[in-house]
Amino acid sequence: MPLVALTGGIASGKSTIARRLAEHGAVVVDADQLVREVQQPGSPVLAAIAETFGERMLRPDGSLDRAALGSRVFGDEAAIAQLNRIVHPAVRAESARRFEEAFAADPDAVVVYDVPLLVEARVDDPWQLIVVAHAPEDVRLGRLVELRGMTETDATARLASQVPDDARLRIADVVIDTAGSLESTRRQVDALWDSLDEHVAQRTART
């Protein structure tokens, strides 16, 4: 019943890896989706965000205005820390519930937590394997501009706001190089899946 953390910087191809693992039968828990769920109207998290950052963070229908919140905290380390103190405990609790639910349904399940902020928030959790999606910064910059429509200035700022690649690579048990073709990435994921037990055993032996 391996519990695998999958992380990577923005535009690193992490979602492609998660989809391929799901195709192999892994249960993928998406941290970004959990964030959206714990911030639903009526939730304690959303109430705390409105209280801390102002009612202008809410849309007329009472839902979170993600663009407004993003603009409010982007580049402000103190505000980001405040937001994290509100959101992270709720996400941690909900993710633990999802993991338990998956293993209760199938004790032999492979559960993958797709989590962008692993280094920042959850690196010391009891993962049995840490997989890092990696592509050079210039490749990711190109993806943000060409595929997501960002300006080069905005894309550069987003990349600069994240932890350095070296910080993620230092914690990796397995690195998936996503700089090449989609097929190359999929082949690496397939190889990981086929040798998952071996990788878990190697990490266990090191720790």
TrEMBL record:
Gene Ontology, cellular component aspect: cytoplasm
Organism, scientific name: Microbacterium trichothecenolyticum
Gene3D superfamilies according to UniProt: P-loop containing nucleotide triphosphate hydrolases (3.40.50.300)
Molecular function as annotated in GO: ATP binding; dephospho-CoA kinase activity
Stated name of the protein: Dephospho-CoA kinase
Family annotation (SUPFAM superfamilies): P-loop containing nucleoside triphosphate hydrolases
Cell location: Cytoplasm
Transmembrane segments: none
Matches recorded under PROSITE patterns: DPCK
Family: Belongs to the CoaE family.
Job of this protein: Catalyzes the phosphorylation of the 3'-hydroxyl group of dephosphocoenzyme A to form coenzyme A.
Catalytic activity of the protein: 3'-dephospho-CoA + ATP = ADP + CoA + H(+)
Positions of ATP binding: A11, S12, G13, K14, S15, T16
EC number: 2.7.1.24
Record PANTHER family: BIFUNCTIONAL COENZYME A SYNTHASE-RELATED (PTHR10695:SF46), DEPHOSPHO-COA KINASE-RELATED (PTHR10695)
Record's keyword terms, sorted: ATP-binding, Coenzyme A biosynthesis, Cytoplasm, Kinase, Nucleotide-binding, Transferase
Pathway it works in: Cofactor biosynthesis; coenzyme A biosynthesis; CoA from (R)-pantothenate: step 5/5
Top enzyme category: transferase
InterPro entries according to UniProt: Depp_CoAkinase, P-loop_NTPase
